[in-house]
Design goal:
Blueprint: H1 3-15, E1 21-30, E2 42-43, E3 45-58, E4 63-68, E5 73-78, H2 90-103, E6 111-117, H3 127-143, H4 149-163, H5 171-178, E7 183-188, E8 194-198, E9 203-209, H6 217-235, H7 245-251, H8 257-281, H9 285-301, H10 308-318, E10 323-328, E11 336-342, H11 346-361, E12 366-370, E13 377-380, E14 389-391
Parallel strand pairs: 4-6
Antiparallel strand pairs: 1-3, 1-13, 2-7, 3-6, 4-5, 7-8, 9-11, 9-12, 10-11, 13-14
Helix pairs in contact: 2-3, 2-4, 3-4, 3-5, 4-5, 6-8, 8-9, 10-11
Bound molecules: adenosine-5'-diphosphate and magnesium ion.
Adenosine-5'-diphosphate binds next to helix 2, strand 6 and helix 3.
Length: about 400
Amino acid sequence: MSLADTVKDHFTAEFGEPPAFIVRAPGRVNLIGEHTDYNDGFVMPLAIDRATWIALRPRADNKVDVISIDMDDRREFALDDLPQPADADWIDYVIGVAWSLLERGYELRGWEGVVGGDVPIGSGLSSSAALELATARAFYCASGFDWDAAAMALACQAAENNWLGVNCGIMDQMISAAGVADRALLIDCRSLECATAPLPVGTAVVILDTGTRRGLVDSEYNQRRAQCEAAARHFGIAALRDIDLPTFLKREHELGPLIRKRASHVISENGRTLRAREAMNAGDAALLGQLMIESHVSLRDDFEVSSPALDAIVDCANAEAGCYGARMTGAGFGGCAVALVRANAADAFVERVSAQYQAATGNKPALYVTRASRGAETVAGTGLSTDFATEDTEET
Ligand code: ADP
Ligand code: MG
């Protein structure tokens, strides 16, 4: 059964009639442009074909009453008396988005709904951004304000930063809000301008979950951000986005060895991401793959955010003849890698890399062939299980 049907049937069983709206918002994987978003730089993610769905109907009062299928939980809160966050409980993401929209002056109405999804939780594919954007879309359906993808992404990022206390950049929310089917999105994280980039014909994107997680990610992440800010301060610029590679190479000796390596990654990664766009526009899978391989080396050696498990799965992937290039993706230290492979070799790639990685490390991986999907949207109409009609998706 599709997730649209799952949340719809669950809603009907709980609330006695079918939902008025069904919305979805996807998770994401980043092809290239890692640890650049908080440096005002460039990223190239795609919205994946896994999403968080909400079936809902508006309420006449200001209560929000939500059932989470995945958490097997039901929670209610009032929009004029938001409960403070406790231990990043799942409902805090819903409350945080309400808080952020109210802060920005949106007039919100209550709703009741059912949430369910298939973005793996906590593996770095941004199930949190998917839940945030699906929640924003639910409020949009219930309240009827104008939908602007960038404004919604910023509101959801603020919820994650200021309500949940998670220090993330804008990439995850922006791609979940603005994703385009069959396209990656080059996002300028300063202006939030987006340009679509086609995936080379005959290729497939494979997500490779190492099955490993590491606890220290948050402190390492904050340390990297501080190091990038120190480098920008030294050069007297707002962010590392504002220095080009030739200028940096002339002046890098002014920095200590650690800050130099961190800055070198960010500045070279911005360049690779812009070249990746050219490669994609030219349909050059080999060049795109090469840039991904270089990105991994830079993240491993200069930014130092890879891990033995990530290096192992990337090495297994790159050893396959059908692989153009693979790299770690997301914050690092565990979680997922991403590979660009020949489409007709994708199934064999998944089988062989799974087996070889497991034999090499003892970890159980999960590999998914993914497709670029649309960003947050309202899915409406009949026949939802197979051929659903959509509305409001072109206005962003
Ligand atoms: P990720 O890398 O997947 O974004 P995070 O730790 O940032 O991992 O966010 C995961 C959290 O988001 C979960 O612990 C849960 O609180 C919330 N969440 C994500 N997806 C769902 C869902 N489908 N239902 C309920 N809560 C969810
Ligand atoms: Mg997250």
